[in-house]
Amino acid sequence: MFKYILQKIKNNKTIRDILRMSWPIMSINIFQSAYQLIDTFWVGRIGADAISSVSITFPIIFFFTSIASGVTIATSIIISQYKGKQDEEKIKFVSSQVLMIVFFSSVLLAVIGYLLSQPLLELEGVRGDVLKNAMYYVKICIIGLPAVYLFYAFQSIEKGLGNMRRSMRIMIATCLLNVILDPIFIFNLNGGVAGAAIATIICQFISAILSLYYLYGDDKRIIINLKYLSINKPLLKKIKDLGIPSFLIQASSAIGLYIITVITVFITKLDTNLIASISIGLRIFLFILIPANAISAATSVSVGQNLGADNIKGAKRAIKLGCLISFVLLSSLGIICFIFAYKIAGFFVNNKNAIVIQETGRFLRAVSLIFGFLGAQLSMLGAFTGSGDTKRSTLLTVLTGGLMLLFGFILSNTKMGYFGLYIAFPLAGFMSLIITYIIYRKENWTHRRITQELENKE
Known about the structure:
- The chain is an all-alpha fold.
- The protein has one domain (2-457).
- The chain has helices at residues 2-11, 13-43, 48-55, 58-85, 88-123, 128-143, 145-161, 165-188, 192-217, 233-268, 272-288, 290-308, 312-339, 341-347, 354-367, 371-387, 390-412, 419-440, 450-457.
């Protein structure tokens, strides 16, 4: 059976292309998420209060970093279609424009995020030492936004080209460096929670510098060109049209996590053990979804390149195979997560706090039921994203998050209490999958050609 599967992969070019593009994306996303998980692991050596301080900042940091996703997803879509047309000069033009946009926007957002971080934390209902440590952590992380945005720009350019090996190497190297720096800044230099944030932004600025080197500093790999740094209004408008829906996808997730955090604080009455349990569970849940997000991103690139070459059959084949790969892989991870839920939870708790382990394990067992179906749905969303129909993928993603919040709020106010939040995830996931499949079957996404729209405006 195993040899048969390997032979099918070897003989199917579409599967090989999806796997070739998805594993670097997957590696990048794993190590990107590992920044937060590494902080959680080392801060967990301090105690539940420290874990809560880091965990409650995640929705805020996620929101401000998600703004970059609008520009970067739009970049990948446009570049992938120019790649399909083999237009190298247009690729350089788009890359140069994007770099300029993300730099100036990131500086502005860093200032806004720094000023709003304390009010946003206070709105969550956080008080005392948890608020103090959380404020230090989030403000330091916000300072690193320009570095994060520049790396995202580099990553999106490589994603559109279908080769992310350089950005993968940068992410792996800086993440491993973070593993070394975290305990030094947290314990050796007595930085505590703030020390974890300092270690993280040092690594992020190193990744930004290396990204600029690959984009411009190395003559053999030059992708951007200074002559293209003047603003092009048609391209800017197209990035805005594609980027705003893509940003709303990520922002809705961040807002949803923020509301879940508020609900958690309200239900648990600021019980740091339970806050830590749900926060750790959410981190692990998002981490396990990384392979599906990577396959979805690779699928969207394959769809974009096939549509750019007017190969609709190839685009449909990529989506079907992407759904199959995601479903099998995520279902397997779901089974593993269900079986070893409590052992996984115990890995992040230094003092073996029984409450934290028990509640995190219960959460993981509930959400593991939906992993395979979420994987298939994400690959279907890749059809809309790759074609440039980001509005539809936005609405479907917002719908999923909205259903989770609705069910979570209703069920958490019953006798189930905070366990109602856990059950909301599989319920919302099944419903949104069915709706996504119905819309996907209409095949309206096959008619979009971003490159033609841009050229008609020039």
